[in-house]
Amino acid sequence: xxxxxxxxxxxxxxxxxxxxxxxxxxxxxxxxxxxxxxxxxxxxxxxxxxxxxxxxxxxxxxxxxxxxxxxxxxxxxxxxxxxxxxxxxxxxxxxxxxxxxxxxxxxxxxxxxxxxxxxxx
Length: 121
Prior knowledge:
Strand order of the largest sheet: 2-3-1-4
Number of strands: 4
Order of helices and strands: HEHEEHHE
Helix content: 25-40%
CATH class: Alpha Beta
Number of domains: 1
Structural class: alpha+beta
């Protein structure tokens, strides 16, 4: 099994000097949510509000897609693209994100968020 090299602090400081921890690349955020069985519709409304608000109010939000599993209706997936790290920070601190976090907190069985660097054009 290959071991992945952790970025050293020198690597990180060089990238920050270049303007971003991610080297100025677009960021992709994926989130897998699983709702409690009796909370599907309430979660669906809240996450659609979040997607709509992000697309309409955040200049750096390039895409915000919400999907629901056909086989497991309690499972949702979100795919977001942000222009850069600063745009993602705006998203995380936006009023609509705060509203959504409050609305969905008790509706979830699990949440798995990952942040990716977009490497394709």
